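Contributing: when you submit paired examples, paste them exactly as shown. First protein:
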Amino acid sequence: MNKEEELVKVGIIENIFEGEMVLSALRSANIPAMIKKYEETAYDGLFVPQKGWGSLFVPREYLEEAKDIIKEVREKIVNETDKR
């Protein structure tokens, strides 16, 4: 990612599993992305249920495409969970 690119928040990532799947899908689409994890070591994840696991950021030019990919990944996760 280029330092001049403005990163914008796309949404909240609920857990590490979702984060890995979303990052993988975005990279496959050649969309640069990063996750800012909400780590609070002293509280051992106490606030994750309220805040989520982390926030996903992409360059502004990829915002809409990234939202679509995230939606697809979440639907895939739900479908896989329903099959169990």
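Second protein:
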Amino acid sequence: MRSGTFKEVLVCLGGITPQIITETIYALSQREPPVYVDELFILTTSTGKRHIEKALIVDGHLKKLINEYDLPQIRFSTDNFIVPYNANGEPIGEIKDEEESRLMGNTITSFIRKITSDNTIRLHCSIAGGRKTMSFYLGSALQLFGRPWDKLYHVLVTPEFESNPNFFYKPKKDKEIETILPDGTKRTLNTRDAQIYLSELPFIRLRDKLDVRENDFASLIEKSQMEIDIATYQMPLTVNLSLRVLTIGSETIEMSPIHLALYTAFLRRKLSYCHHPSRILCQDCNDCFVTLIELGRESLENMAIDYARIYGGDERRSQELIQKWRNVLSIPDLLRQHISKVNSIIRHALKDEGVSHFYTICSIRLYAGTRYGIRLERQKILVA
């Protein structure tokens, strides 16, 4: 019985061995609990499409499987073939060169991205069939866009029956079929000896963990790798005001109250003044950066609150800081001095400039002025 929760969609790679597709549908129906395919899509070339159309539609092997095992009807027509087209608008017949491989990769990736936007669908993707590069593209696309409920499989068939043009699934009633051995001799096989195994393959799911918007497969991989590098290279940062320390990875750094309060002000701005909260990663965005005049005007009171927390909640410290800074002739000059000291402390503690530049307060020249902020990804920041 169907669970009714999802529409079960099978995505297969197609080449010149159409029997892989019916073998997969058969194997899914024999699982416990069984999976009954509602719709079938085939990613293939124009050559593969001709072979599959003849075997599954014209010769009726798909209908025979459905009827013999009393399976629910499967939505499948010529519209369910996904074939890449070249720059001249012609369907690709074979994957013969790098350009055709690139087009196939883009086609597979675009299809998986589009179909996974529908959360009523559960994908069952088979990497059996087609060229090995197609299997790679399908597995990679599912890693990038697959949801927790999507599945990836490989179909294994008893070697004597694998790719046999007379074997499309294991029939209910045993029958004999002929096969040709590698030496050219003929041999008669009985289908009772055939076994079809459906191996479910685990894969890393990166959807919702990366913010990738590129359409080209190569660009998707490059952008994804960059985001993974950023996520793994940047250590988490925690500020503990009551203990007067900040922790970067395993490194604990002590700061004076004024320096810790100032640094925390930049961190809070990173967390609270994000202009693009829907973005998973900040990356090169610096829209939350602020001029020192703006920081002194907008963050002084919040900085004073943190300053008091550093002193155990002593409100007198808060008023002391506000009064002191309001009497300073040039707040930007004072802030620059403190920023320089904060950055010196962080660089000394972390030692590696390639790491420390994520954590120091940096400056950029923007809109005819200098703005300041921290490059670290906001999800790596915790102020306690």
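If you have annotations for the second protein, write them as plain sentences, like these:
Residues 7-227 form one domain.
The CA atoms of residues 108 and 138 lie 6 Å apart.
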